[in-house]
UniProtKB/TrEMBL annotation:
Entry's EC annotation: 2.7.1.24
GO terms (BP aspect): coenzyme A biosynthetic process
Lineage: Bacteria, Pseudomonadati, Pseudomonadota, Gammaproteobacteria, Chromatiales
Pathway: Cofactor biosynthesis; coenzyme A biosynthesis; CoA from (R)-pantothenate: step 5/5
UniProt-listed PANTHER family: BIFUNCTIONAL COENZYME A SYNTHASE-RELATED (PTHR10695:SF46), DEPHOSPHO-COA KINASE-RELATED (PTHR10695)
Keyword field: ATP-binding, Coenzyme A biosynthesis, Cytoplasm, Kinase, Nucleotide-binding, Transferase
Catalytic reaction(s) noted: 3'-dephospho-CoA + ATP = ADP + CoA + H(+)
Name of this protein: Dephospho-CoA kinase
Family as reported in the entry's similarity comment: Belongs to the CoaE family.
Gene assigned in the entry: coaE
GO molecular function annotations of the record: ATP binding; dephospho-CoA kinase activity
Summary of the function given for this chain in its UniProt record: Catalyzes the phosphorylation of the 3'-hydroxyl group of dephosphocoenzyme A to form coenzyme A.
Amino acid sequence: MFIVGLTGGIASGKSTVAERFTRLGIPVIDADALARDVVEPGQPALDQLIQTFGTDMLTPDGRLDRERLREHVFAKPEQRRALDRIMHPAIGRAMQQALQAAQGPYVILMVPLLVETGQHRLVNRVLVVDVPESVQVRRLMGRDSCDETQAKAILGAQASRDQRLAAAHDIINNEGEPATLDAAVDSLHRAYLEMATDPHARERRWQLP
């Protein structure tokens, strides 16, 4: 299976790009969705989280209070590392199962922290959805109703824009109009169809629009 790792900074438009590929009939595996699945009641990862962080991290109906857990670990590096030690293997196993079940000429693996976790080494191609940090901050403030300081702190917890771009094979600039984005995804879709069967086609790097 030819795997394209889709990533980008927060509020860059990864989900919008993924939706375009889905419309073209390409399976998209969403690591964030898998992260929610592996902490459902009865899952081993949830039991590990309770043992590590306590039952205070549960909602009254026994589900993980994701927002409370985020707040708990956000400014505590040791606690964040403990969370990663539980979540990353669980998500990795779920990801492998989803990849094995995927049907299509190629598959999109959407991982927000693809570069940060080193998972970019596990895919055939890295596609980065890119916008300037000022655009990320503005979108994040509008989307999450946070102030500029909070938005910049969230960005600071991720890989830098330069780090993502350095790992990219292909780049979509997502500042433009929806029609421009549609055209960019269509171009990459045709390229990935070719790359899936012809390794020589993988030598080209794409930057769109």
